[in-house]
Amino acid sequence: MSKSNLFKRILIWRYRHISEKNFVFLLSLVIGLLAGLISVFIKNITFGIEAILEKGIVLSQNSIYFILPIVGLFLVYLFVQYIAKRPSGHAIPSILYALSKRNGIINRHNMYFPIVTAPLTVGFGGSVGLLGPAIASSSAVSSTLGGLLHTDRKTRSLLIGCASAGAIASIFKSPIAAIIFAIEVFSLDLTFASLLPLLIASVSSVITSYFFLGDSVLFDFNVSEKFVIKDTLFYIVLGIGTGIASIYFSKIYFSITSIFNKLKSARQKLIIGGLAIGAMLYFIPPLYGEGFGFINDLLLGNDIKALGSTPFDPYLDNIWVVIALLIGITIFKAIAMTTTFAAGGTGGIIIPTLVMGSALGNVVAKIINNSGLGFSVSEANFTLIGMAGLISGVLHAPLTAIFLIAEISGGYELFVPLMITASMSFIINKNTLDHTIYTKELLEKGALLTQNKDKSVLTLMNLDTVIEKDFIELHPEMTLGNMLLKGVAKSNRNLFPVTDDTGNFVGIIYLDDIRTVMFDQSLYSSTTVETFMHKPPEYIQYNNDSMEMVMKKFHDSGAWNLPVIKDNKYYGFVSKSKLLTAYRRELINFTS
């Protein structure tokens, strides 16, 4: 028996004996386990590279360690150019695009691509995180598995959400935050049908992480100082600070990305980006790698250890020099992260955001404590809550930020300040930037899914499915007689596109336009199509108009049919009735 026949028999058995609901639960369990394994594997490979470099000769020579990120980026460049032979994409935006425009289908190469490039980037000191690549690889595995098992688009989308939740739960050991992340960032419906699979995937992934890594945690810290009401104003100040910093984070990302996009050669990006990263690391060593060690040192109050060896070591007895260096980390972490991406590295933005937020929170606490006004706040608590504030602003995901920091620190006692800071940061960023690093590019492509069901349904719709092409084309120089003979007599439509010899659309004729003269034979030879044609009330641009724009054009024009123009040529028509029928069908599929 061939493998294909055996697989078909397994599928048939599944259809007969396992309900769709239970099948999704089973798949979510499997995907959670796989996401946990992938996350553990990526972490261990990266830590292995770091351990080799730390024990080797390279890092013992402190003067050349900043060259390592360039080496890592060069290895990634070689892999991309000569093995993968395709550019790497940013994890979350690529997944969101697959959900909205590719029916949840993710290219299979994404299963292994991040597993190779992310450890090379981060292990050699690239200033990015491992969470994004873990999510990308896990999501590709879930998409491929869903395709093999013939799941529909909605189920594949849910399984991708399960994969992302599993990756976060495994890395941070925070299953609740993982579920909320999938709902907030991937715009999944908060229903029992989606919540339970996400929960199963998160729990199974956490168990996998515990099995391989034991009870070790990223942050070896527990909250010891409770929230006191007199500190409320300071947490509001921190929320404002993280909100402004999150705007800076996003704008720096877009600016540096735009600059590097002007460089056409990947080799140029590597050289310029590598040198820039090396220079930043020389003066600010904590920018090296992910930065978990930096965060832990700040939480434990080891400021000098967190800052590492810098040219400013003789001045660290002055607390304001320490504060200035922490501000430098806050500023340059976003620059180092974006430069790593732009130079060709692979990674995620969530962990760099945590690093930047921890530095900013610690700075705010130190300024309050050393202002000479007699105030005293917990620097560790502000370090934690600064992370939540920046995550909330950068990702537009305040609930994810609150529960993530609460879970990884055991700091549920800090729920009130977490909510204050996260909400303030979110409000400030949202009122300034409508979209995040993840969603801006998708918005420009008309491929962004949101919690707004109407807009999401329009985003999921495909223009090709509503274009009709069974129209007889007329030409401006055709006589009325030829038009009746070759057009009206052979068509069951009441409208006709008019095109020139090169296929350019020049006008439209409705049957009503010629109804009063179509039986007047004296006009058959003396009048032409050009006499009766006119411009339609609106055009649909195939390459530029989203489905939301198409719907708006129908609404504003009041037309029942609009022509579609592709590459300046006539391509077909869209009718309002077919568009609304397709919308209703998609809405039923989306909400069922």
Q: How would you summarize the topology of this molecule?
A:
Elements: H1 3-17, H2 20-55, H3 57-60, H4 68-84, H5 91-101, H6 113-123, H7 131-148, H8 153-172, H9 175-185, H10 192-213, H11 232-261, H12 266-283, H13 292-299, H14 303-307, H15 319-342, H16 350-369, H17 379-395, H18 398-409, H19 415-432, H20 440-445, H21 453-460, E1 467-468, H22 480-486, E2 495-499, E3 505-510, H23 511-514, H24 529-532, E4 540-541, H25 547-557, E5 561-566, E6 569-575, H26 576-591
Parallel strand pairs: 4-5
Antiparallel strand pairs: 1-6, 2-3, 5-6
Short description:
With 592 residues, this protein is mostly helical.
Structure description:
With 592 residues, the chain is mostly helical. 63% of the residues lie in helices and 5% in strands. It has 26 helices and six strands. The strands form two sheets. The chain has a four-stranded mixed beta sheet with strand order 1-6-5-4. α9 packs across α10, α11 crosses α16 and α15 runs antiparallel to α16. The longest helix is centred in the N-terminal third of the chain and has 36 residues. It is elongated and about 105 Å long. It starts with a helix and ends with a helix. It is a multi-pass membrane protein. This is Chloride channel protein. It comes from Winogradskyella pelagia.
